[in-house]
Amino acid sequence: MKIQTGTKEDRTFIREQLIAYNRQHVPEALYEQSEELCFTASNEKGECIGGITAS
């Protein structure tokens, strides 16, 4: 396996595939409901060293 930085096209493809998969398993009434999430990782000095955001 090789992990590398994806392109804009890769990001779009992955997002479209996730949406298609989720629509098969999530009730239609929930399609428009979303929540913004953000988690961060901090070092012992309290400095942000990474994180992830999602909706």
Structure description:
There is one protein chain. This protein is of the alpha+beta class. The chain has one domain. The protein contains one helix and two strands. Strands 1-2 form a two-stranded antiparallel sheet. The protein is flat, with a radius of gyration of 16 Å. The two termini are 27 Å apart.
Please tell me the total number of domains.
1
Q: Tell me the overall shape.
A: flat
Number of strands: 2
Residue-averaged pLDDT: 87
Report the span from N to C terminus.
27 Å
- Please give the count of helices: 1
Q: What radius of gyration results from the CA coordinates?
A: 16 Å
With strands numbered from the N-terminus, the spatial order across the biggest sheet is: 1-2
Please state roughly what percent of the residues sit in beta strands, choosing from under 5%, 5-15%, 15-25%, 25-35%, 35-45% or over 45%. Answer: 15-25%
Helix/strand order, N-terminal first: HEE
Summarize the structure.
The chain is an alpha+beta fold and 55 residues long.
Secondary structure blueprint with pairings:
Elements: H1 8-25, E1 37-42, E2 48-54
Antiparallel strand pairs: 1-2
What structural keywords apply?
flat, 55 residues, two-stranded antiparallel ribbon, 1 helix, alpha+beta
